Amino acid sequence: QWKQLENLYFREKKFAVEVHDPRRISVSRRTFGQSGLVVQTWYANTSLIKSIWVMAISQHQFYLDRKQSKAKIPSARSLDDIAMDLTEMGTPKVSKLVTLEAKNQLIMASNGSLISSGSQDSEVSEEQKKEKIMELKRKEKLLQEKLLQKVEELKKICLREAELTGKMPKEYPLGAGEEPPQVRRRVGTAFKLDDNLLPSEEDPTLQDLESNFIIHQKLVEAAKKLASEPDLCKNVKKKRKQEYADAVKKLQEIENSINEYRIKCGKKPTQKSTLALPGERIP
């Protein structure tokens, strides 16, 4: 009987009706501590289950409207008058209920529930709905913050790739109307010294001078790459050329120190900078 109804709900392929039966004592996860609640369950495909659920709540609304109409009837009336009255009152309410079901954010395509009006669980259900909404909003906020963090990480990775390749990858996230940033390709100036290139002189002082010369020779090569980079403005190009000239000068000074020490030790001088930089005009 409708007066014993506690709840009608569906979840995916499951449709369930909860009724209050004082003659039976049953424990359900939806009883909220009450006893005498019996759950009847049916299974079918999702679309059929949802259609059955919509028809069930419409029938229940019809029962509530009929019950309300009986309470308002002052005197005995014919069945035809009652049927006409119920039809006029029930039809717009059923239509409104179906429309509300389609728009309600709590009733999704995969599940739904309706606590009957006047049910003992209606207040508890409303509180649970509010808590559920707050919980979903908190989860949504956390997911949005995590998404923004991942987007920023993706931007940094794309910018690093653009600096290496000279081309912005298509995975770079762009907002509405946002243009991709212009990135210049980074000139490769890194180098690594091979252990076999380091001199193995018996004299520690001469070995330090030779090692210093090899390191500065690599710095000269890096400064030359930077100075010869295309598409530079006039001031930057002038500055890099000056840095390259200073590096070449420093390399020549190191070689002069090596030659002075070699002559002092009775050894022949070298011309490493001339061989390392053929055709270069050393200041």
TrEMBL record:
Mind listing the GO biological process terms from this record? establishment of epithelial cell polarity
Localisation: Cytoplasm
What keywords sit in the KW lines?
Coiled coil, Cytoplasm
> Mind telling me which Pfam families this protein's record contains?
CUPID, FERM_C
One GO cellular component term noted in the UniProt record for this chain: cytoplasm
Recorded coiled-coil stretches: 126-153, 237-264
Which InterPro entries does this one have?
CUPID, FERM_domain, FERM_PH-like_C, FRMD4A/B, PH-like_dom_sf
**FERM domain spans which residues?**
1-67
What PROSITE patterns has UniProt attached to this entry? FERM_3 (PS50057)
Give the main localization category: cytoplasm
The protein, known as? FRM4B protein
Q: Name the encoding gene, please.
A: Frmd4b_0
